[in-house]
Amino acid sequence: MSMNLAKETFSTQPDYLIAGNAEIITAVKEAAADLKRGAPVVLDSSGKLAAITVTGSADAGYTVGTTGLYGIMAEDAAAGEDGIVYLSGEFFADALVLPANATAADVEVLLRNLGIFLK
Q: Is the predicted pLDDT of residue 55 greater than 60, yes or no?
Protein backbone atom coordinates (compact mmCIF):
# COMPACT_ATOMS: atom_id res chain seq x y z
CA MET A 1 0.00 0.00 0.00
CA SER A 2 1.47 3.37 -1.00
CA MET A 3 0.65 6.88 0.09
CA ASN A 4 0.74 10.04 -1.95
CA LEU A 5 2.81 12.45 0.14
CA ALA A 6 2.95 15.20 -2.47
CA LYS A 7 1.44 18.51 -1.46
CA GLU A 8 -1.93 19.00 -3.12
CA THR A 9 -4.02 22.15 -3.25
CA PHE A 10 -7.79 21.99 -3.36
CA SER A 11 -10.25 24.79 -3.89
CA THR A 12 -13.86 25.34 -4.65
CA GLN A 13 -15.52 28.06 -6.62
CA PRO A 14 -18.85 29.05 -5.05
CA ASP A 15 -21.77 28.97 -7.45
CA TYR A 16 -24.00 31.83 -6.44
CA LEU A 17 -27.32 31.86 -8.25
CA ILE A 18 -29.82 32.46 -5.45
CA ALA A 19 -29.54 36.10 -4.35
CA GLY A 20 -32.03 36.56 -1.54
CA ASN A 21 -34.47 35.02 0.84
CA ALA A 22 -37.62 35.51 -1.23
CA GLU A 23 -39.85 32.47 -1.42
CA ILE A 24 -38.64 30.04 -4.07
CA ILE A 25 -41.15 27.90 -5.89
CA THR A 26 -40.00 25.12 -8.21
CA ALA A 27 -41.52 22.80 -10.77
CA VAL A 28 -40.30 19.73 -12.61
CA LYS A 29 -40.55 19.42 -16.39
CA GLU A 30 -38.84 17.31 -19.02
CA ALA A 31 -35.97 18.97 -20.91
CA ALA A 32 -36.11 19.01 -24.70
CA ALA A 33 -32.35 19.67 -24.91
CA ASP A 34 -29.34 19.83 -22.60
CA LEU A 35 -29.78 22.81 -20.25
CA LYS A 36 -27.41 24.42 -17.76
CA ARG A 37 -28.12 25.61 -14.22
CA GLY A 38 -29.07 29.30 -14.34
CA ALA A 39 -30.43 29.24 -17.89
CA PRO A 40 -33.76 31.01 -18.44
CA VAL A 41 -36.06 28.54 -20.14
CA VAL A 42 -39.24 28.50 -22.18
CA LEU A 43 -41.80 25.80 -22.80
CA ASP A 44 -41.63 24.54 -26.36
CA SER A 45 -44.65 23.46 -28.39
CA SER A 46 -44.60 20.01 -26.76
CA GLY A 47 -44.50 21.47 -23.22
CA LYS A 48 -40.83 20.58 -22.65
CA LEU A 49 -38.11 22.90 -21.36
CA ALA A 50 -35.95 24.65 -23.95
CA ALA A 51 -33.39 27.45 -23.83
CA ILE A 52 -34.42 30.97 -24.77
CA THR A 53 -33.37 32.12 -28.23
CA VAL A 54 -31.92 35.38 -29.54
CA THR A 55 -32.67 36.75 -32.99
CA GLY A 56 -31.55 39.84 -34.85
CA SER A 57 -28.22 41.43 -35.62
CA ALA A 58 -25.78 43.82 -34.01
CA ASP A 59 -26.97 46.61 -36.33
CA ALA A 60 -30.71 46.11 -35.87
CA GLY A 61 -30.57 45.03 -32.24
CA TYR A 62 -31.21 41.65 -30.67
CA THR A 63 -34.54 40.26 -29.53
CA VAL A 64 -34.91 37.48 -27.00
CA GLY A 65 -37.54 34.95 -28.03
CA THR A 66 -39.83 34.80 -25.02
CA THR A 67 -42.86 32.83 -26.06
CA GLY A 68 -43.66 30.57 -23.15
CA LEU A 69 -41.01 31.98 -20.78
CA TYR A 70 -41.19 29.63 -17.82
CA GLY A 71 -38.37 30.16 -15.31
CA ILE A 72 -34.70 29.53 -14.53
CA MET A 73 -33.04 26.12 -14.41
CA ALA A 74 -32.16 25.06 -10.85
CA GLU A 75 -29.72 22.38 -11.98
CA ASP A 76 -28.23 20.94 -15.17
CA ALA A 77 -30.54 18.65 -17.10
CA ALA A 78 -29.88 16.48 -20.14
CA ALA A 79 -32.33 16.09 -23.00
CA GLY A 80 -35.14 13.74 -22.00
CA GLU A 81 -34.47 14.10 -18.27
CA ASP A 82 -36.68 15.88 -15.77
CA GLY A 83 -35.26 19.24 -14.78
CA ILE A 84 -36.06 21.41 -11.76
CA VAL A 85 -37.02 24.98 -12.63
CA TYR A 86 -37.23 28.00 -10.35
CA LEU A 87 -40.59 29.69 -10.87
CA SER A 88 -40.04 32.49 -8.34
CA GLY A 89 -37.30 33.99 -6.19
CA GLU A 90 -34.35 36.39 -6.25
CA PHE A 91 -31.31 35.55 -8.38
CA PHE A 92 -28.00 37.14 -9.37
CA ALA A 93 -28.19 38.51 -12.92
CA ASP A 94 -24.53 37.79 -13.61
CA ALA A 95 -25.05 34.10 -12.77
CA LEU A 96 -27.61 33.57 -15.54
CA VAL A 97 -26.57 31.34 -18.42
CA LEU A 98 -27.70 33.30 -21.47
CA PRO A 99 -27.28 32.70 -25.20
CA ALA A 100 -24.65 34.69 -27.08
CA ASN A 101 -25.63 38.35 -27.53
CA ALA A 102 -28.31 38.23 -24.82
CA THR A 103 -28.03 40.20 -21.60
CA ALA A 104 -29.78 39.98 -18.26
CA ALA A 105 -31.51 43.27 -19.11
CA ASP A 106 -33.17 41.54 -22.07
CA VAL A 107 -35.02 39.13 -19.78
CA GLU A 108 -35.26 41.12 -16.53
CA VAL A 109 -38.78 42.50 -17.00
CA LEU A 110 -40.07 39.25 -18.47
CA LEU A 111 -38.75 37.30 -15.48
CA ARG A 112 -40.13 39.89 -13.06
CA ASN A 113 -43.58 39.25 -14.51
CA LEU A 114 -43.14 35.61 -13.43
CA GLY A 115 -42.09 36.52 -9.89
CA ILE A 116 -38.36 36.15 -10.55
CA PHE A 117 -36.28 39.15 -9.53
CA LEU A 118 -32.68 39.80 -10.66
CA LYS A 119 -30.07 41.57 -8.58
A: yes
